[in-house]
Amino acid sequence: MDDEHESHDGFDDFWEIAAGLGLGEPEHRAEQHEEARAIVAAGRARRTFVEELRSLAPGDVVTIVTVDAAAVTGRILAVGRDVVSVGEVADPSGAARRRVVRRHDIRLDAVVRMVREPVW
């Protein structure tokens, strides 16, 4: 395997299965897909909440609730080692989600809940 895939801790089996997907008999493909899904689900189950926050991509629309019960709905601008930057939007749906009203830099240890907003 190449170095790119070796950096994914716990996902070595996934890359082996993924390389073989689409090969072989059609009746074995469904089994391979299920096995790959199980491996990914197991990897995600081992992720901590902070790792999940760090996996957010810039542009994702989320609602973040902090320890002091403040809720901020906005687009992820950046995720750093200790801080997530959220651009608050006027409305989480439609064209209003594009314009950032204000920027919030929230410490990761202050986040108690994160909900990804659906993209319509």
Unreliable spans: 1-8
Mean residue pLDDT: 76
Instruction: Let me know the number of strands.
Output: 5
Global geometry: elongated
Helical proportion? 25-40%
Strand neighbour order, sheet with most strands: 4-3-2-1-5
- Helix/strand class: alpha+beta
**For this entry, what is the oligomeric state of its chains?**
single chain
DSSP helix count? 4
Largest sheet: 5 strands, antiparallel
What string, H for helix and E for strand, traces the elements in order?
HHHHEEEEE
Strand content: 25-35%
Radius of gyration: 18 Å
Distance N terminus to C terminus?
38 Å
Model description:
Helices cover 32% and strands 30% of the residues. It is built from four helices and five strands. It has helices at 3-6, 12-20, 26-45, 49-54; strands at residues 61-66, 71-79, 83-89, 100-107, 111-116. The longest helix is centred in the first third of the chain and has 20 residues, at 26-45. It is elongated. Residues 1-8 have low confidence and may be disordered.
List keywords for this structure.
4 helices, 32% helix, alpha+beta, 120 residues, elongated, single chain, disordered N terminus, five-stranded antiparallel sheet
Brief account:
This protein is of the alpha+beta class and about 120 residues long. The chain has helices spanning about 5, 10-20, 25-45, 50-55; strands spanning about 60-65, 70-80, 85-90, 100-105, 110-115.
